[in-house]
């Protein structure tokens, strides 16, 4: 995973610089999300690494699937990635681009996984607390995982806060073993 991130980083930075210069951060987000979605499809992924296809054919296949939704700069990115045999990095490039965009906008994406669905009041309180702690605007999404038994796991970039009952039981079991 770290290797893929290392390979994807220069492309993400280049796209981000282009988007920032042209003031098209949201348009690039849309284009990258679209490309990433199609490139991660199982059938398309096979096509993008098929040895009998040239780089131009692989790039054109992805561009054709996306239709008229891509701008010329995004199409050019696809061709560059295909020539360098890096089309499989689109998901990582998209994630890194979104991180750079969030840093610029002083925002962070937070995923809260809880045993039960959060109420709107709970979500708002948690978002305000995280905003104060992280000193950034918080874009929060919630997921439900009943296997947590109780509590929640909060993921914000590299920060992970495990307040789940399952996590606490695991820590207790580890402490008892040592």
What secondary-structure arrangement, pairings included, does this model have?
Elements: H1 2-22, H2 25-39, H3 42-48, H4 55-66, H5 72-83, H6 90-104, E1 107-114, H7 120-134, E2 137-144, E3 152-156, E4 159-162, H8 165-177
Parallel strand pairs: 1-2
Antiparallel strand pairs: 1-3, 3-4
Helix pairs in contact: 1-2, 1-6, 2-4, 2-6, 4-5
Membrane topology: Peripheral membrane protein
Keywords: ATP synthesis, Cell membrane, CF(1), Hydrogen ion transport, Ion transport, Membrane, Transport
Protein name: ATP synthase subunit delta
Keywords:
alpha+beta; Peroxidase, domain 1; 4 strands; four-stranded mixed β-sheet
What can you see in these coordinates?
It is found in: Cell membrane; Membrane. Its main location: membrane. Belongs to the ATPase delta chain family. It is a peripheral membrane protein. The chain is globular. The chain is built from eight helices and four strands, in the order ααααααβαβββα. The model has no long low-confidence stretch (mean pLDDT 92). It is an alpha+beta fold and 178 residues long. A four-stranded mixed sheet has the order 2-1-3-4, with helices on both faces. The longest helix has 21 residues, at 2-22. α4 (55-66) runs antiparallel to α5. It folds into two domains: 2-102, Peroxidase, domain 1; 108-177, no CATH class.
Number of domains: 2
- Helical content stands at 55-70%
Compute the average pLDDT.
92
- Physical arrangement of strands within the biggest beta sheet: 2-1-3-4
Family: Belongs to the ATPase delta chain family.
Main location: membrane
Subcellular location: Cell membrane; Membrane
InterPro entries: ATP_synth_OSCP/delta_N_sf, ATPase_OSCP/d_CS, ATPase_OSCP/dsu
